[in-house]
Amino acid sequence: MGKRVADEYASRRSPVQEDMRWQLKEWQLEKWGGRGLLVLVLLALLGAFSDGWLSQTTTSNADGSLVVEHQRILRAMSDENFTLRVKFAAGQPTVLTLGEDFMDNFAIQNLQPQPLITHANRHEMVLTWPANAGREQALWLTAQPQSAGHFTTAIRLKGAQPVILSQWVLP
After folding, report:
1. pLDDT digit string, tens, across residues 63-115
2. In the chain, is it the N or the C terminus that has fewer CB atoms within a 10 Å radius of its CB?
3. 101 SS3 class
């Protein structure tokens, strides 16, 4: 005759008192908690919380004269890169205006190439580059969000419609 095998899912008093109904609930909670953590890690790797495939986007104005490559989701106090691609008439200077939310909530760390003329007025910064022989120009801007929140920024090219950026900054 074989040994009697205890039912693993039955509550018992010996050697330790346990209530298997609560133990099963705890195991379910652990299983779902592990799945939730896995989903969070995958979302983070894909860029749902900053810098990644889900966050990267390109925004342009209606006529395509200004295209901005940027992140939808940023992190406060971390450097963020913006690439601005400008199409313009040959022989004309490039004049860009960084709008109110941008100047109030971001600190500019770097701007390449450096503008020839820079001036600020009423929460805006106007940047002017000399006329270029070509018809396209790329500008690289590194800025640092100063606080968390949702920001809507307008970047305007002189004589064209603005590009509106909608970005979330996480703490």
Report:
1. 999 999 999 999 999 999 999 999 877 778 889 999 878 988 999 999 999 99
2. N
3. helix
46 phi and psi, to 5 degrees? -80, -10
CA angle 159, 64, 142 (to 5 degrees): 85
Distances (CA, A) of 153 to 30, 40, 145, 156, 164: 43, 29, 12, 10, 6
Break the chain into its structural domains and give their ranges. 18-47, 57-170
Do the bridges between strand 66-71 and strand 149-157 make them parallel or antiparallel, or are there none, so unpaired?
Answer: unpaired
CB atoms within 10 A of CB 31: 10
Residue 57, both tokens: 């986007």
HSE-up of 92 (CA within 13 Å, CB side)? 14
Task: Please answer whether residues 153 and 66 qualify as being in contact, where contact means their C-beta atoms are separated by less than 8 angstroms.
Answer: no
Selection from 54, 82, 66, 73 nearest residue 137 by Cα: 66
Enter the tokens of residue 97.
Answer: 């205006």
Hey, what CATH topology would domain 57-170 get? Immunoglobulin-like (2.60.40)
